[in-house]
Amino acid sequence: MVPGQLASDLVISYSTLNLMSVPLYQNIFCEARDEASTGNYTQSVDVQINVVYPPVVQVFPKYPVYNVIEGLLNFVFNCNIIEANPLPQSNGYSWLHRSLVIQGQNSFSYTIASVQKSHSGEYRCTARNDYGSGTSNSLALDVQYPPSIQGLTSPYKVIEYQPINVTCQVSSNPPPNQISWSPSGEGSVPSRLYYSSVSIKNRGIYSCTAQNTMTPTVGEQQTGMSTNQIHVDVLYPPYMSGMNSSYKVIEYQPLNVTCQVSSNPPPDKISWFPTGEGSVSSILYFSSVSRNKSGNYSCTAQNTMTPTVGGQQTGMATSQTQVDVLYPATITEFLAKDNITEIMENSTFHLYCHVDSNPYSVISLTFGDVLKSMIRDSSELTYNATAGCLNSGKYICSATNSIMNGVTVSAEVNLNVQCK
């Protein structure tokens, strides 16, 4: 046989192996047997098949739901490779939060420096090699946080005798296991501050307190608590106090009456009718009061109440007082009937004395040293008598009251009786 040539009786055969499913890292060998040789010669060759495939990954911590408390530092996710051939490059990873890619995160671990509420939700990792990618199961991060009380308006303004209904709105995870108001209202719902008809005594500071229990997957259970306050401001219309029903003042003395008003909010306007001389609207003032100022005076106050809930209302109140100007007696008229001072003996004569004073006066009529008539607490005196010859002469009407230290004023009438 010539070197390099095949023997004429040499038979070359081939065998092809088709694999539908290749086990990972499986050694395959091919064996040939020469049955014609006297020694039944066989020979085999090992062939190692390197099966390549995309990664199979799992996110760690290995929990479907993982509870953490807000503020936890340096919380780490790992993207664990279960199997892959070849392994991913160090930057062959990506992370998803709520199905959105987290930008800038391409390594096998992802660290949250300080866990916040916004970090809640599902996380997945994806690993890639040259033959594909694999995405992990999801891990739901449940960020638990203490109560936060929201939506309380302070001051909370409510009009007297109107209802108040304030809800303590709480955000927490898990939800609060206790909500309470202090002081409590009338309602049976602990998260509501309720009064069916609020009064001034209900004004003040009210505190809402909420509490929950946070249970992390790793670590100790913690109690979360929050308190928030509101000032309940009860609005009410004006009412007057401290003003007498009447004021007595001596003529030509000053008069100063203050209209004391309590209201919330303070009055927009206070006025007197009739008005006095002063520039301060809440004070009725006369520097020198005269008798013609006697009478009834009214003080009116008005305010505007704007509650937190509901429409604006106007409050109004009016109070009345009487000004009584006191002055001494003045005899305004003392005369005989029809001004007849010449009368006949045995005829009837009439004397009339009128006094202007406040208060009323004691009025007396004298003839010489003889008291003919007297009346108390009156403004007039009338005297009737039958004329005799001895009735001629001077008749004096005198009047006095308690003003000016009881000064007495008098007037006289001369009566002439003509005897028969």
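(ticket continues) Second input and output from the same batch:
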Amino acid sequence: MTIEWRYTDYPALGVLSVSGHLSGQAAARFAGAVGRVEARGTGPLILDLAALQGWSVEGQDAIADAAARLAACGRSVELAAIPADGSLVPGAGQPHIPVHPDLDSALATHHMH
């Protein structure tokens, strides 16, 4: 199973909505999406995972890698609506990744709706 993604660029942040199952097989597609986001957007990136059906350890690692990649560019990553089957725990030395219950809450944190 793979993922589908859609990017929405707001004036002060971006939202990458991801659906499907983020597994090791889908990690390269996800990394490609993050590469496009890195080239197009500015400010924090909110990963909207409301439509994500699940994620593997490799998928979680891909998110942590994306957070590190964007942190190197001065951008942060936040998660909205993580899958019920787990939580993301960044490794030592990786950037902190805030988690919001849903996209509306994440946008409200940045005074956007």
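Agent notes: Strands lie at 3-9, 14-22, 45-48, 52-55, 77-80, 99-100. The first strand starts at residue 3 and ends at 9. Closing as not reproducible unless the customer responds.
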